[in-house]
């Protein structure tokens, strides 16, 4: 008796899952190892902030209340860009970390104020809500995105796949402005 076409497809899919399933496990282990190294580099940069040369500049064309950019250099090599965009009801802080000219990590913090900062009677900085997203890069590719709850975001879903490219482009634009 010959198996039906559906049974054959199921068998083929099961075989492929058996054959390539371990690759997903290996890929996850490699990604985890890369992220451990990125975290070590992040810590090294944060621990040595005081020793770096800095360049600061104001930016006025990208947010309602302006912003500031600080570039940190180690031996003429950019290791960190900190950007703060100010708004009336909050601010956004972006930290771009580099290793040998390549973006390796981005920390994206959003601060939502309880009232506009111009409302000096009701504005309370202690009521500010902070959310964070963390982006890990390897060889100019976004390899992991953790949302505010530290959940991994699916990088293959819709516009999520474009987020990494957008962050790299933004970092490169600001880097080029700092190096001028």
User: What's the helix count?
Assistant: 2
Overall shape: it is globular
Number of strands: 7
Radius of gyration: 22 Å
How is this structure best described in words?
The chain is α+β, with helices and mostly antiparallel strands and 180 residues long. The longest helix is centred in the N-terminal third of the chain and has 43 residues. The model has no long low-confidence stretch (mean pLDDT 83). The N and C termini lie far apart (75 Å). A seven-stranded antiparallel β-sheet has the order 1-2-3-4-5-6-7, with helices on both faces. A hairpin with a 2-residue loop joins β6 and β7. Helix content is 35%, strand content 34%.
List keywords for this structure.
about 35% helix; about 180 residues; alpha+beta; 7 strands; single chain
Tell me the layout of helices and strands.
Blueprint: H1 5-47, E1 53-59, E2 67-74, E3 77-86, E4 90-99, E5 102-112, E6 129-138, E7 141-146, H2 160-179
Antiparallel strand pairs: 1-2, 2-3, 3-4, 4-5, 5-6, 6-7
């Amino acid at each position: 008796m010959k198996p039906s076409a559906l049974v054959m497809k199921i068998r083929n899919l099961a075989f492929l899952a058996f054959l390539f399933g371990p690759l997903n496990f290996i890929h996850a282990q490699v990604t985890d190892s890369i992220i451990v190294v990125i975290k070590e580099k992040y810590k090294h940069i944060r621990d040595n902030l005081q020793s770096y040369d800095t360049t600061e500049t104001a930016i006025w064309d990208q947010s309602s209340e302006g912003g500031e950019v600080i570039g940190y250099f180690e031996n003429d090599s950019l290791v960190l860009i900190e950007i703060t965009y100010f708004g009336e009801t909050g601010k956004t802080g972006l930290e771009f970390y580099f290793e040998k000219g390549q973006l390796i990590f981005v920390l994206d913090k959003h601060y939502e104020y309880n009232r506009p900062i111009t409302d000096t009677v009701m504005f309370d900085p202690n009521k500010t809500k902070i959310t964070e997203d963390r982006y890990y890069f390897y060889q100019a590719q976004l390899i992991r995105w953790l949302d505010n709850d530290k959940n991994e975001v699916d990088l293959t879903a819709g516009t999520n796949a474009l987020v990494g490219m957008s962050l790299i482009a933004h970092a490169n634009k600001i880097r080029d402005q700092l190096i001028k």
